[in-house]
Amino acid sequence: MLFTTDKQTLDDLNIFGRHGGDSVYNIFNRTTTRGGAMLLEEMFLYPLSDEQSINRRIGIIRTFAGAGTLFPFKSMLFDAAEPYLDNTDERTKLSTEAVSITKKLSNMIAVDVQTVVIYKGVAALVELLKGAHDFIKGVDGGEHYRADKEAISLLLSDPAFAPVLQEDSKGKLSHAAAAEYDVLFRFRHRDSIRRLLRYIYLLDVYLTVGKVAVERKYSFPLALPGDRHLLTIEGVFHPQVKNAVPNSLQITPDSNLIFLTGANMAGKSTFMKSLSIALFLAQMGFPVPAARMEFSVLDGIYTTINLPDNLGMGASHFYAEVLRVKKMAQELSQGKNLFIVFDELFRGTNVKDAYEATIAITSAFAQKRNSLFVISTHIIEAGDVLKERWSNISFQYLPTRMNGNTPVYTYTLETGITADRHGMIIITNEGILELLKRGKLEMLERDKAQIHKLKAV
Amino acid sequence: MSFIADKQTLEDLNLLGKYRPNSIFGLFNQTKTHGGGRLLEGMFQEPLTDPDRINARRKTFQYFQDKRLKFPFSTDAIGLMENYISMGARSHFFLTAAGILQKKLLSTFVRDERYGMIYSGLLATIQTLHALRSFIRQLESEGDSPYQERVRALKDFFADRRLDWLSAAARTESLPILQVAKYDHLLKHTFSKEMEGVMEAIYELDLYIAVTDVARSRNFSYALALPKGRNLFKAIDLRHPGLDKAVGNPLSLHGDSNVVFLTGANMAGKSTFMKSFGISLYLGHMGFPVAAKKMEFSVRDGLYSSINVPDNLSLGLSHFYAEVLRVKTVAEEVSSGKDLVVIFDELFKGTNVKDAYDATLAVTEAFSEYRNCFFIISTHIIEVGDALRQRRDNLQFSYLPTIMEGTIPRYPYRLEEGITNDRHGMMIIANEKILEIILS
Asked: pTM value?
């Protein structure tokens, strides 16, 4: 089954973000080659769906990160090779025949631009092939990279490439050799060259991601079979929050629904985003912002954190939420193992509807033991009812400590339902009721004064 | 002092905004001239607070509505005329004549376009003036409203002997150049002040006719403004002006019954009713026609609503906190002793049930002490209503009912007295069959 997610989730987690923004993709988007950047994007668009390929990719990245391997090619080479390979016009082939005197003369005065591109492309590919050959010989890469390594060796061992690999690296290519390789690279063995480049781009991604993991102190997760429905994560933090506070969490089939409460600024959304981003990256076979992580492979991740509510009417936001829940329900009913996050479920309606709906929907979710849920709400009353009904709901909260009248947030998960109710405290702090009382008194005084004056007159 | 309505209120009621769909301004914006549109905008931006001025403007509108007049000018001619008058004039007749002669020559020899512009502008102006003269003959000029003063001034202007040529010129096909120079000088120099008045009069006529056309076609009526001290609001068949098949409701507020506690399901029409009230009050303060059969109101200092308070997550404000701040703003205004109208729709939904109950009760109770202000407060927490009923006697309890036909709700949109417990959150979920889908 393919891994599924949707635009709402990608937006919530800021996976791609707006152009040039502070997105998760941009954390890793530091590849040397443009081909590598494209592959990286592909990996973000299509996370993996089976445990072997996830563990394999994690293994490769971990090995390279551990060895501190550097990318052995200059990006200039790819800038020359790519446009060259894209040109498949037969007429631009370098001719092997003796060059006429007029052409030689005109070349001395002003070189034909197209020919220069081709010359440079051939030279770049010669260097790339030789570089790849040397790299494969020298690098270990561990067991997970072995398949890639063998594939590259096989490509390079084609007898057609033998003269290329023996080319003297210092000397300039002779015209005859260039013309010969041109035919080889662009026409006869074009596919092999393309495949080789893809391996090189992949290598670029692995090395870059490994470097990011080391720099940012990410760890390498372990993927478990999907039917175990487990998640153990220690020290997970939000990759884009400075001085983020790490949290730990364990989800098993006996506690597969997290009911999260906490005051508004206590960090509920941030925690849910951290967890979802970690799971998303893990599902891609990437290092995660956490100290340690083990997870059962999922069939999909769906979050509902910032549901757009620019629909004008009050009823519509609630309806948008209902439709969103319905979509989740349809996905769940197909028996998928999902990770589902709802932030402030049913905040678009009145508290009483929200209370009833939260209990009903959460109860239904709780019966889906093969998926993981995180549901946050401000309706703490719903939690008490759910606690009585279901044993597999894990109640977590983010506490608020009152320091006199100012709230202090620890951002560290605790077990239970918070009794923090700040509604009235906030209203009291803002002094609304006093304001109204005082105003009324002043008005009465003024009236009294007026009556006195009138009486005096 | 001008009537207060802040940005949040204007947005809640969708009052202003030329380019916003279904705005109330857009509803009335049927003016044919730019100047008329500008006048309309000005009126929308500054509702009045003086009952006499409001009633004077209302009477003018009423007068035009009864007269059923048509805008007598072509918009093209008005455009040409605006252009022509703004061209400016020379101080002496000979300079004007010389300038026109020069342009005429240039236009003959080098196809200069300026003479053509002057000529067509002058012709358009003459046509318009002619039409205006015959138009104002049918208008009443006795009285002291600003519009009647305007009509008197225009009648005086047209009575001037120096304009006797007007009807003859309006009928001719072409004007000789000497006459062009003469009229040009007369209209742009001698009568420059009066011509400004003429333009303004045209814009005003445009506005009056446009607004009353809307009022007539939509069956609006005019509200009577009363002095502040009367402290009352009374309307029969109050509707939302933007809705075609709006259902009307009566509403009566006064010092002894100044708070409406409104309940009803989500789609039952609570917001629409509250908006109808807010919009009618605003239009009433403008002297504009209102969507009601009959309405009278004591002039207020301002209007505050809290219907769609946006949360400002970029500022780190939660929905609840945004609402608290909104209530605080209103509390500051109310406690400063102003006579206000306050609309709160479904307060405190971004918090837990207990807090929402406590907060709604405390805030409603505190506000209701201000008998000089009118409040409409809607909520789903009916327990607040029961508590308030025992503690205060100046609340009226209304609800918008829902009639269930099987599992399909029908909304009559007619206010009834009392408190209702109707809610449909769970029904919507049930209708979407979500629980069944999850558990299938």
From this structure: 0.76
